[in-house]
Amino acid sequence: MKVNKWIGAHLAAIFMLLCSVVSFGQGQQGVSLDKIIARVDNHYILSSELEDMYNQYKAEGRGAPEKCQLLESLIINKMLLAKAEIDSVTVEDKEVDGELNAKMNYMVQRFGSEKNIVEAYGKSIENLKGELRQQVKEQKIVEKMQRTISGNVKITPADVRKFFNSIPKDSLPYIPSEVEVGHIVKKGTVTREQKEKLRQQLQELKQRAEKGEDFAMLAQIYSEDLGSAKVGGDLGFAKRGQMVPEFEGAALGLKPGEMSNVIESQFGFHLIKLIETRGAEYHARHILLRPDYNKGTDMTDATRALDSLRALIKTDSLKFAKAALDNSDDKETAESGGLIQDRSTGQARLTLDASMDPALYFAIDTMKVGDLSMPVSYRLEDGSSAMRILWYKSKSEPHTANLHDDYEKLAQIVLSNKRNNALEEWFKKAQGDVYISIEPEYKNCKVLGLAANADDI
Predict the structure, then answer these.
(1) Any coiled-coil ranges, and where (predicted)?
(2) CA distance 301 to 191
(3) Most confidently modeled of 185-189, 308-312, 346-350?
């Protein structure tokens, strides 16, 4: 059995494609008959999964791999899941819920509202979340298994030099222009009218609960905390310091069974009901309502703050990295001095081509290296409306790969190759620990070097 380079290089990306919120739920429309085409222990692969995966590649304008390659990647993911069960590798619900919330928030941002999502997919939000949650959980388990298998792989500068010297000079890759761009983001301020509207809505829900309606049911219906809403707003036991101060202070000021006043935090507005306390831990439910960032956001304060920071940076009274760390509302980039990272590589160098975020591409197209933009509109991943200033830090010229300028890229290739080798060795050993069966119609694929056998499917 051989795990080819295509599989090794794209294993994580393929599974992310399976969990893509863009394709999620759509592939099942129009499927009258489905069938099992492969089995790995208790995990099954349906023909619709393979078709959805193939069609998703084409829909995104990417060259779709052959279906045999896609089937192999699906089976490998199922092998990782099956071995995770055997080895008792699990992920915490909190980690799954966090990823699920991020994906659902992205969907709301992309479609404009939950109502639009329901109309697009023909399913309730709860049903969509239920389907996506299992996919997210499997994704997290696969990622954890991959880290377990190849997490200890290391490389040295000698490894990188050896790899570079092994490439024929006339075969060295051409590296396109790359840029480093930083940004400082400031969210808009929710208007007073919007805040008052949310407070009033939660106050009405509190009155309904006081008159006898079930708090958990109200949370299921109205809460916009997508992770906890499905369990009646139940947040489980939390340790002191785990929740934001506003939430924790209000919760700890309650007696079991009591409800709080409406509380505002960075996440929105909460109505909290304390269930019980246990030593240094407390157990609460909540209903969360969030502002409509499309309609109820004032950008005046955000723009003024960024104008002030821009003036200080331009006069060299404040370094951009320090300003981003202390002031940016995009916490993911603030920790790296505001530099925007390529999520596929984790590096702060972005390829200057069509793969770049269009808004960013067209913004820096009118800038020179070293320029600092005026405040421009921006939308955070959670849907929040914001403003940002951009810093065009650097740009590399297109060139043939060399050891000096492209060491990091070469090192990533060497590390990836070593990890792929570790995965391949793992698959050779793991293949005997799990039962794999493939439908005869895919016998020409020779997936993982196995002969197709449908006797046990």
Answers:
(1) 118-145, 188-215
(2) 11
(3) 308-312
The residue type at 77: N
**Domains 177-189+297-397 and 192-289 are alike in CATH topology:** yes
At the topology level, CATH places domain 192-289 in Chitinase A; domain 3 (3.10.50)
In tens, the pLDDT along 72-121 reads 888 888 889 988 888 888 888 888 888 887 777 777 666 666 677 777 77
Q: Compute the half-sphere exposure of residue 157: CA atoms within 13 Å on the CB side of its CA.
A: 2
User: Tokens 């089937």 appear where?
Assistant: 71
CATH architecture of structural domain 177-189+297-397 = Roll (3.10)
- Say if pTM beats, i.e. exceeds, 0.70: no
Distance between CA 371 and CA 69 in Å, rounded? 45
Instruction: Give the C-alpha separation, 90 to 57, whole Å.
Output: 29
Q: Using one digit for the tens of pLDDT, what is the confidence trace for 269-298?
A: 999 999 999 888 899 999 999 877 666 678
Strand 297-298 relative to strand 350-351: parallel, antiparallel, unpaired?
unpaired
Spatial CB neighbours of 438, under 8 Å, sequence gap ≥ 6: 37, 38, 71, 75, 445, 447, 450, 452, 453, 454
CATH of 5-155+408-449, picked from 1.10.4030.10, 3.40.50.360, 3.20.20.80, 3.40.50.2300, is 1.10.4030.10
pLDDT at 59: 64
Nearest to 111 by CA among 97, 125, 95: 125
* Residue 52 neighbours by CB distance under 10 Å: 22
Domain boundaries, the chain: 5-155+408-449, 177-189+297-397, 192-289
Looking at the chain, the number of H-run helices and the number of E-run strands are 16, 15
